[in-house]
Write a structure and sequence with these properties.
- It contains three helices and no strands.
- The protein has one domain.
- The two termini are 36 Å apart.
- With 114 residues, it is an all-alpha fold.
Length: 114
């Protein structure tokens, strides 16, 4: 998993902010980055756990509870799909942060420090 806090452009932005007396803003930006990274980790962990639950349920061999098993598997599938959608949205946010950071760094280089 690629962490946003380890992205080169994010590191450069944080450094630039701190060098230009924007330490408080840098800390707020870092907090945002860490929140995105933590959410991504949590989504991944939950998806792995759901896959493990699915495997365990699929291996269950209780014929009289087959319909309940199917209902639970369907519910797990629905939850997994919603989590995948949320994780994809988070990836889009992550991509926008990277894009904004790169564009801002390019603007600073082009315009110079002010």
């Amino acid at each position: 998993m690629d962490f946003l806090k380890d992205h080169e452009a994010v590191q450069q932005m944080l450094c630039l902010m701190r060098e230009n007396g924007k330490g408080e803003e840098a800390e707020e930006f870092l907090w945002l980055i860490e929140c995105v990274d933590n959410m991504e980790q949590q989504y991944s962990s939950v998806l792995v756990e759901l896959q493990e639950i699915r495997k365990q349920l699929e291996q269950t061999q209780v014929p009289e509870q087959a319909s309940m098993k199917d209902q639970v598997l369907d519910a797990l599938q629905a939850v997994q799909e919603k989590l995948e959608q949320a994780r994809n949205q988070l990836t889009a946010v992550k991509d926008k942060i990277i894009s904004w950071t790169k564009n801002t760094l390019e603007d600073v280089k082009r315009l110079g420090k002010r």
